[in-house]
Design a protein that fits this description.
The protein is mainly alpha-helical. It has a single domain, classed as Rhopdopsin 7-helix transmembrane proteins. The chain has nine helices and no strands. α3 packs parallel to α6. The longest helix is centred in the middle third of the chain and has 34 residues. The chain is globular. The relative contact order is 0.10.
Length: 253
């Protein structure tokens, strides 16, 4: 199980880094805020912050462990904050409540990340850090799970709107498909973050317990595949989406 988890982490991290670079470069050309926010999300959280936080306990000295956890948690909080702002600014740009909800989520992320760092600073014995940081880590995962549930809901809503426009020839099949995949990615991430939060609050070690470990591993694997299909779709996949749309149009003609 440990080898599977490591392989999925490496794949998820590598995919996130590639996608983040593409999105940030695209935002420089387009001056687009959504591309920038998502690029920063993938770069800071799954691309660098999460791997640092996972590897921190294995560092050869306490100083390096503290440095890795401080930098890792800061990047996780920053990246997840960009993700919440993306939800608010992209899906509900004219409403005020999404920005307020994102700010509440960001505050919860800061509290959770700070709690994890304080647990490491106050506990020289790494065996006790997990117990002392359990609540803070659960808060991080719970907040992130709510954010992914939000994005799954919005992705589903937009996909339904675009399906109606597709019937009138007013939307592109690949755009509609991206929102569908975005919704699926939100559901997958909601599930594995919620499982992690549940087992943390239940007193389990999520780094060794088979259920949260398997959920995190498979969640990272599926998320990596969905990132590729959303942001870097292979030619065969784009052609398949176009043919599928054409077949449905003929069937309803």
């Amino acid at each position: 199980m440990g080898e599977l988890s490591l392989a999925c982490l490496v794949l998820y991290t590598a995919t996130s880094l590639v996608v983040s670079v593409r999105l940030i470069l695209r935002s420089r050309r387009s001056r687009g805020v959504p591309e920038l926010l998502m690029g920063l999300t993938f770069l800071a959280a799954p691309g660098t912050g999460y791997p640092l936080a996972v590897l921190a306990p294995a560092m050869p000295s306490r100083e390096l462990t503290i440095a890795a956890i401080v930098i890792g948690e800061a990047l996780i909080v920053f990246g997840c904050s960009c993700f919440l702002l993306f939800n608010a600014k992209v899906f509900r740009p004219s409403a005020s409540w999404p920005t307020a909800a994102a700010c509440v989520g960001i505050a919860a992320l800061v509290v959770g990340g700070t709690g994890v760092v304080l647990a490491y600073l106050s506990t020289p014995d790494l065996a006790l850090v997990g117990e002392r940081s359990r609540g803070a880590m659960a808060l991080l995962l719970f907040t992130l799970g709510l954010g992914y549930a939000w994005t799954a809901t919005e992705g589903t809503r937009y996909h339904r709107m675009l399906r109606r426009r597709l019937a009138l020839g007013l939307a592109e099949p690949m755009v509609a498909n991206r929102f569908l995949l975005w919704a699926v990615a939100g559901v997958v991430s909601t599930v594995w973050n919620s499982i992690g939060a549940y087992y943390l609050l239940a007193g389990a070690n999520v780094m060794t317990h088979p259920v949260p470990l398997l959920a995190t591993s498979l969640g990272g694997l599926v998320s990596a595949v969905l990132q590729i299909l959303i942001f870097m779709p292979p030619g065969w996949y784009a052609r398949w989406v176009g043919r599928e749309r054409g077949a449905r149009a003929l069937a309803t003609a």
